[in-house]
Design brief:
- With 158 residues, this protein is mainly alpha-helical.
- It has one domain (2-152).
- It is 73% helix and 3% strand.
- The protein contains six helices and two strands, in the order H-H-H-H-E-E-H-H.
- It has a two-stranded antiparallel sheet.
- Helix 3 runs antiparallel to helix 4 (36-65), helix 4 runs antiparallel to helix 5 (89-116) and helix 5 packs antiparallel against helix 6 (123-149).
- The chain is elongated and about 45 Å long.
């Protein structure tokens, strides 16, 4: 089961990232256009981003458990994060950005649910948090993708 989860981490990352980016666009558009439909779109996209990131985190933890060092021995993982070794620096940053984004996504999902229930959170705060989430997950995804598909780990692209 853990192998199945680990192998599907990269596939699971696309929906939360796309939802976060589209949510950020909707939050920014709501600032300037002021239409409640756009704000509702942001709310739904924020909830979708949070719900779909949960399996992404589970598969990411499984993928981190399967990392091997130069000797072919597994890295020691401390909780959710790989151990703080120089060889793990890039993947550790990837994990920290991803988990930080999960915390921001949880706040945005809460605000999105509040919006759908009739409350009106501060639109500037929502736009800033939505942009922060898109940046956190965008950078984290770039680092994770580079770790998986970069020339250091995928020599077929040299």
């Amino acid at each position: 089961m853990i192998m199945f989860l680990a192998q599907n981490h990269s596939a699971m990352t696309h929906l939360p990232i796309a939802s976060a980016v589209l949510g950020a666009v909707a939050a920014l558009a709501a600032l300037f256009l002021g239409r409640k439909e756009i704000y509702w779109a942001w709310a739904v996209l924020s909830i979708v981003a949070f719900v779909t990131v949960l399996p992404t985190v589970a598969t990411g933890i499984a993928a981190a458990k399967g990392r091997l060092n130069e000797d072919g021995k597994p890295y020691i993982q401390q909780g959710f994060f790989v151990s703080n070794l120089p060889a793990n620096a890039r993947i550790l940053r990837h994990q920290v950005l991803g988990i930080s984004g999960v915390a921001v996504a949880a706040v945005l999902a809460f605000l999105g649910i509040s919006t759908l229930r009739g409350r009106v959170p501060n639109k500037i705060v929502v736009a800033l948090l939505a942009m922060l989430l898109a940046i956190l997950w965008g950078l984290g995804a770039f680092m994770g993708g580079k770790e998986l598909w970069g020339p250091d780990t995928f020599p077929g692209f040299h």
